[in-house]
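On clarity, I found the account of how folds are encoded harder to follow than it need be. Since the whole study asks how a given chain folds, the encoding of that fold should be made plain. The format is easy to grasp once an entry is in front of the reader. For illustration, here is how one protein appears when written out as sequence plus structure tokens.
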Amino acid sequence: GSIVLILASMYGGDSLGSWFVVKVDVEDDNTNEFRGGTMKYYLTKRTAEYEYDGDAPDDTPWDYSRDYDNNRCADFGDDCDELTGLMVVKIKNLLYLAILAGLAALYFFNEDEDEKGAMACLSMGCAGLLAVAMFGLSFPEALEDDAGVWEVMEDSFDMNTEPTLFGTESEEMDGSELTFSWRPDIAFVLVALSGILGIAAYSEVKN
């Protein structure tokens, strides 16, 4: 189960592979018209999707997907070096390590080597939880360094925002209400649960 959760976070596509989501919604209080944008951050890429009530304006940005190592990854910069180093190098390698440890655990248990199997479970759980901890501690700052997401909100809409893992800010402007929100997404939860299952398996075998 732990292996399946990690594979789902890595190869689950748009539905299961998103680690972080940023939403910007604008609602016109006079006409009740709505427009918004959703940016999702995956293990190796980011995507943007826009939605409007009625006909979209002529300057509507196109939905897109960009890899972190693409030199046009950041909307307000040239590259995403910080995100590449964190997601593509560090976290992705930790997830591969967790999968290998899980496969090793299955092999050792099949060979009735419970002690080695327990240690493999511990390694798998620690790798998953380390990936989650590293993401939680480093992703907001990496995203801000590469794309300036919170800086744009502060400069453009006078929102007092800081790079954090969770948050919501709202602002009234020119008869419209703008809401800016951000949070970890499903892949973050899947990997955290995978790590917990690995530790639980270790504990059960040891006991």
About this structure: The two ends are 20 Å apart (CA to CA).
